[in-house]
Amino acid sequence: MDSTRELFPLGIAVGQAHCNRIVERQELSTNTRNGVHTWIWARRRIGKTSLIEQVLRDIEPGVVTTRLDLLVIHDARDFQSRLQSGVELLGARLAPRRSSSTAKLARAFAAWRPEFSFGVMGMNLKLAAPVRSGEGVAEMLLALDAAAASYRRRAVLVLDEFQQLANLQGGQSRSLEGAIRHAAEQANNVTFVFAGSQKHLLASMFENEDRPLYRICRKMTLDRIEAGDYRTFLDGAGRARWTQRISRTAVDRILTLTSRHPHYVNALCGSLWRADTPPDTDAVDAIWARLVEEESGLVSARVARLAASQRALLRAIAVSEEGVPHPTSHGFLAPLRLPVSTGVRARDALEREDLIQREADDRWRLVDPAMAACLRRL
């Protein structure tokens, strides 16, 4: 393991930094290789993009891949522009690296007046832009499928933060969803992966029978990494750094404070692994306190935007480190001076905003462990 920064990145974790996810990696790899379209939901910073990027590495170079981040798209034209750039990239990658032949691509994309150029990185493909936004989306994706078929190769197109399609200005989201469904149903050599972090929007798109993408995909839900998998990973990381394992109590303290949230595990361990000696629980607590303090400004800003009833319920749940089994019961809400009906609305809003979650033990806790720690101090 080359460095702490590579082992505990705050961004995408692949290669030696990718912890476990063996089952999920195998499932997604199998789906993409076999043309099984998939939609993936995971909360932000849980490792969705890391999983996808690792799988794309796993299946290359035999499969050509690209991932498009749709987080900041605002209208249909912006979406189509990003989609076209992904199609151009995949199309160029389909051709053999040392081949200057463009005949197959030219035939597949004839309706888009393709232009080809060659540089140090290989072939570049440029397609003509549509006259009107939303025009020809299905046809362009099917042209990519035809190109992949002509080279007898598989292409994988990942549309990350796909739920943003539902929020487009101009009301064209349904027609675009319909175009994508048409292409996905007809494609034989292109696999689509749709990923996102807003569960209610994605579920509506793929599980509502009135929506175009209903039941077009297999579903994957990404949960937090299991404690046992993290212990194995951190044991190996300790041996690589100090030629010895760190204590079980220190590892358990790391996992307790971070609630096994991948972003915070990496943030905490990234600091701990820079020390000359393995950490004890006091060192873990000290670094965690510093991280919580660094997060306090962001936490305050987000909590301040909530309605008063939501703030009250959020803090009350945060204070209970063991979680709350019935946050909308009269007994829990009475000290907050909230009626049950208001508590139910507040809970639903906090869950929709991905601030709280009901976990496997049927107790409600905050999603963000640093936010919970900040609120306990107030």
Structure description:
This protein has 16 helices and nine strands. It is of the alpha/beta class and 378 residues long. A hairpin with a 2-residue loop joins β3 and β4. α10 runs parallel beside α12. The two termini are 40 Å apart.
List descriptors:
378 residues; alpha/beta; 5-stranded parallel beta sheet; two-stranded antiparallel sheet; 16 helices; globular
Total beta-strand segments: 9
Uncertain runs are none
Placed side by side, the strands forming the largest sheet appear as 2-5-6-1-7
Helix content: 40-55%
Number of helices: 16
Distance between the termini: 40 Å
- Output the helix-strand order: HHEHEHHEEHEHEHEHHHHHHHEEH
> What is the makeup of the main sheet?
5 strands, parallel
Give the gist of this structure.
The chain is of the alpha/beta class. Helix content is 50%, strand content 12%.
